[in-house]
Amino acid sequence: MNTIFHQTVKIIRNELAAENTWRVRLASKEIAESVKPGQFCMLRIPGVRAPLLGRPLAIFRAEEESVDVVYAVVGHGTEQLSRLVPGQEMEIWGPLGNGFRLDADPVNWPTRPLLVGGGIGQTPMYLLAKTFLEQERTEKVTFVWGCRNAGLFACLEDLEALAAQYPGRMEICLATDDGSRGHHGFVTDLEKEIIAADQLHAGNACVYACGPEIMLKNVAKTAAAAGLKCQVSLETPMACGMGICFTCVTKCKDPDAPDGWDYCRTCTEGPVFDAESLLWD
């Protein structure tokens, strides 16, 4: 079981990263040293009663003594978070959940991983791409990312800088619904094109995705049609983040259950699931 740290830490930076999207850096050496790609943390402003509960947010980057979290301002809690300044304190607990599963067996290692992000779904992808690139057996990482418009690509410069550190080994492809940048259309269009053009197959590739559920469903469908394994990180709303409240359940296939499925807690069994294990509505 993962060690979970519960701390009150200093804010190092908290700044606008894109349209309605912010990035906060928190001083937490313990979480930075233990987080795995795809895991998340809970953030809460100390002493605030409304909202009382923390906010579940994916960890974007982890340096030696700090973690970065990228978040969209969508409600009262994240709006309050966006008003905090360096030097103020934040309550954080994590790392939480099960992240992306990476096979240590060199025979099964995906040498051509395909990462797919939709909207704020790029947040777990930096650590995942970095983990792959640090392994010489990885030939090339392809990251395709779709947003409604060009103003929503938060922290794209971090991903571009990561690609620059590994020349020729990371490709970034963008898509926008309105055509303001990159491919004019859905990110799932790019997924199909890259699988076909790069000749990705079960022997060299796996798909890793995070974004809205309808996008994940289509990503998984395309991966399955190509014979590729697919892991998806769900963006299901959470309350406790530790499996106590059962508010973040999702339907998972279970041959031993009377109806062939049962509920899984996204915060503890996930947020990353094998796509084939989910029962998409």
What would you note in describing this structure?
By secondary structure, the chain is an alpha/beta fold. It is 20% helix and 33% strand. The protein has helices at 29-34, 76-82, 125-133, 156-165, 187-197, 213-225, and strands spanning 5-18, 21-27, 40-44, 55-62, 66-72, 89-96, 114-118, 141-147, 170-176, 183-184, 206-210, 229-233, 249-253, 261-265, 272-274. It has a seven-stranded mixed β-sheet with strand order 10-9-8-7-11-12-15, with helices on both faces. It has a six-stranded antiparallel beta barrel with strand order 1-2-5-4-3-6. Strand 13 and strand 14 form a beta hairpin. The longest helix is centred in the last third of the chain and has 13 residues, at 213-225. The radius of gyration is 18 Å and the shape is globular. The model has no long low-confidence stretch (mean pLDDT 93).
The largest pleated sheet is described as: 7 strands, mixed
Question: Would you tell me the structural class of the helices and strands?
Answer: alpha/beta
Q: Mind telling me the C-alpha Rg?
A: 18 Å
* Order of neighbouring strands in the sheet with most strands: 10-9-8-7-11-12-15
- Spans of at least 5 consecutive residues whose pLDDT stays below 50 are none
